[in-house]
Amino acid sequence: MSNSTYLSNPVVTINSVDMTDQCSSAVFTRMIESLESTSFGQTNRSYVGGLENSTLTVTMYNSFSASETYATLKNLVGTQVTVKIKPTSAATSATNPESTLTAAYLESLPIVNGQLGALDVIDITFTGGAYSVAVA
Amino acid sequence: MGYTIASPRLGIVGDVYDPVDGINVEALIEGGFIKSTIKSTKSDKPNKDTNEEN
To answer: φ, ψ for residue A70 (rounded to 5)?
Structure first.
C-alpha cells in the first residue's frame, strides 16, 4: 500500500484578494485552547476544550507595486479580516477543502524587512476568528 | 452601493463585485482592487472664493 502525498501549492486569499503568487509559506493551524480540569484523586492531568483560537501564518514577498502585498495589507492592520486557504488550486472538494477564518485579527504588519542581497520577505499572522471549511 | 473589480487578483476586471460579510471593502478600495460604481455628485472644480481682497 502506497502512502498519499501532495506537492505543497496552497491557494491563499486575504480579504478576497488572491495572494498566492506572493506567498512562499502558509501555515494554517486550528487551535482550541485547553482548560485544565484535573481534580483531586486523579493521577494524570486532564483537559477540556475552551475557546477556539486558530491562526494563519503567511510568509510573503513584500512589494509596494499596485495590487501587491503592501496595497493588500496596509489597511488591514488592527482590523478583522476574512482569510482563506486550500491545499491546491484545484476545485474545492472533500479532497481539497477550503478553510476559512472569518473575522481573524491582523495585529502587526512589518513594513520593510531589508537585508543585504536578499528579497524583502515578511511574516504575518491572522489570529482568531470563526473557523469554517468548505468541501464544495 | 455597487462595486466593480479593478484587479485580476480579485476576479475578472470590470465584473461586478459583491462583497460578502467579513470583507473590508474600504481596504479593497484603498488598495485599488475595486471601484465604486457610484459617481461623486461633487464638482471637481474648486469653489470660487467670493471674498477675495483686491
So the answer is: -65, -45
